[in-house]
Inverse folding.
C-alpha cells in the first residue's frame, strides 16, 4: 500500500513535469512546501520503490510505474470532485479540499462504483481529463485563451489551474465551462482581452486570467 505522503509526491511530480517529463527537486520542494533536503530524501525513497529515476543534481523523472500510480491518485481526486458537484450539489470552488482527503482512500471498487454512478465521466468539474482505471489519460488539444487572436470564436473547455480565487472570480463574471466567446479586442498595452458572448455585455479579462482559461477554437 502506498502511503499518503508518497502519493502526494507522485501527484506533484506528475503535475509539475515539463514536456520532457522532468521536475527539479527545487520545484518539487516549493510545490509541497517542504525543504529541499526533505524533497531530495523522498526522491531517493521514491527511486528505491521504483517510482522515479533519480540522479544527484539532476531533474527527477517518473518511471512507468510512477506515472501510473500518480495518475490513479489524480483519477480518485477528479472523480471525487465530479461526484461532489454532480451528485451532491457542491460548487466547483468547494470540492478541492474534500477531494484531497478522499483521494487517499485505498479502495478501487469505491471509485469504480462512483465512476459508474456518474455514467463514466471523461472530465472533472474544471474540465480536466479523468484518467481511466489503468491510469491512462488523454492529452487534450486545447490552448490558453491568451494565445488567441482578435476575431477568434472559442469554447471554454478547461482551466490550467483551479484555485478557489480563480473559480470565484469566474463565478463573479458568470463564466462557466462550454460557454462560447468571441475575442473582440486584444489590448496592445497589457494583452488584456475584450470578449463577447451571447446575450451579455462585453467582458474584459486580464492577461493573467486569460492564461488560465483553456479553449478550443470554434
Amino acid at each position: 500500500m502506498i502511503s499518503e505522503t508518497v502519493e502526494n509526491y507522485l501527484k506533484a511530480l506528475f503535475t509539475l513535469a515539463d514536456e520532457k517529463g522532468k521536475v527539479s527537486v527545487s520545484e518539487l520542494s516549493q510545490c509541497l512546501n517542504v525543504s529541499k533536503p526533505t524533497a531530495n530524501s523522498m526522491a531517493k525513497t521514491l527511486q528505491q520503490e521504483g517510482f522515479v529515476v533519480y540522479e544527484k543534481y539532476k531533474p527527477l523523472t517518473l518511471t512507468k510505474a510512477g506515472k501510473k500510480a500518480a495518475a490513479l491518485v489524480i483519477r480518485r481526486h477528479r472523480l471525487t470532485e465530479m461526484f461532489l458537484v454532480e451528485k451532491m450539489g457542491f460548487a466547483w470552488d468547494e470540492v478541492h479540499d474534500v477531494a484531497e482527503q478522499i483521494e487517499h482512500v485505498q479502495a478501487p471498487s469505491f471509485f469504480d462504483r462512483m465512476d459508474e454512478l456518474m455514467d463514466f465521466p471523461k472530465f472533472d468539474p474544471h474540465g480536466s481529463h479523468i484518467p481511466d482505471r489503468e491510469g491512462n489519460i488523454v492529452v487534450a488539444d486545447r490552448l490558453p485563451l491568451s494565445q488567441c487572436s482578435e476575431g477568434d470564436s472559442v469554447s471554454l473547455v478547461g482551466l490550467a489551474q483551479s484555485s478557489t480565487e480563480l473559480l470565484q472570480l469566474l463565478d463573479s463574471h458568470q463564466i462557466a465551462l462550454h460557454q462560447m466567446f468571441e475575442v473582440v479586442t486584444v489590448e496592445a498595452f497589457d494583452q488584456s482581452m475584450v470578449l463577447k458572448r451571447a446575450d451579455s455585455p462585453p467582458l474584459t479579462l486580464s492577461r493573467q486570467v486569460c492564461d488560465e482559461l483553456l479553449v478550443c477554437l470554434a
